[in-house]
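Async update (no meeting this week)

Hi team, since we skipped the sync, here's where things stand on the single-chain job. The sequence we agreed to prioritize is pasted below, unchanged from the tracker. I ran it this morning and attached the output directly underneath so nobody has to dig for it. Comments welcome in thread, and please keep replies under the output.
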Amino acid sequence: MSRPHRIVILGRAFPQMPDLIRKAELGEAILLPEAPDVSPEQLRDAVTGAAGIVAMPHVPVGAELMDMAGESLRVISNHAVGLDNIDLQAAADRHIAVFNTPDPVCEPTADVAWLLMMGAARRVREGEQLIRDKQWTGFAADLLLGRRMIGRTLLIVGAGRIGAAVARRAVGWNMHVLYVANSDKPNLEGPPIHATRVELDAGLAEADFVSLHVPLTPETRHLINASRLALMKPTAVLVNTARGPIVDEEALINSLRKQEIFAAGLDVFDGEPSVRPEFLELPNVLALPHLGSATEEDRLWTTHLVVENLARVL
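Output:
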């Protein structure tokens, strides 16, 4: 009788995952919910001899960890749409299959991008704080005036699945949609969206709302920097639901502090869960703790896909 596979779950997974692994008869699930904040000894003890690794998006899986697992490691199933936490070349060199879970992340992340766009534009953070501090004295015609969305220009930076889902939502607001992508997207350029492909700098100068949806790569790190923020309108809103390092946070803080752009809506941060204190202090920042795909239905769907991806190999 063959020995059961050892599957290591790095990071805090959905509670149903170990049971799903067991029911799929894939082997034994080893939980390491504190990863990556564990000692090298704990990590080595957990992954040595593993046939499969499940990684949360904040857990790096590099060559050293793969070698800790040894030649038994056949598959890495990433609990995310992005793969920036996985050393793909190291996996390819070792003939290890790598999977992600794009479908469940798409629609809920587009919802959060839209939530941040609307909330930042309408100064929701400041309004809620006024209520909580019991400082609201009643209606005033000039109280917390925000920015209108109907008929404005929306720039989608990265027109993949999530970017396209955000663009679809713009139809109801009669927005003019621009997009930045490596190739033309006929599905966006046709009805009902009628989007136009543009270069990034030109789109930033024209947009009233900018929503970021590119993967994190060496080319996209600090894609939005001081010079590009300077291209944006002082009335513009920047939204990031992709990855924190896509934005130069120091440059963004300076731009927000000087009111060179109107506001930012952020669901991701460089170095999260650490968040720069300026983002918590600036009134024109609406911040969320990486909630993009955080619905019960979609996280359960992701969990099922993670296990299915393990089963494809094991």
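Quick observations from my side:
Residues 102-121 form the longest helix (20 residues).
The mean pLDDT is 96.
Reply here if anything looks off.
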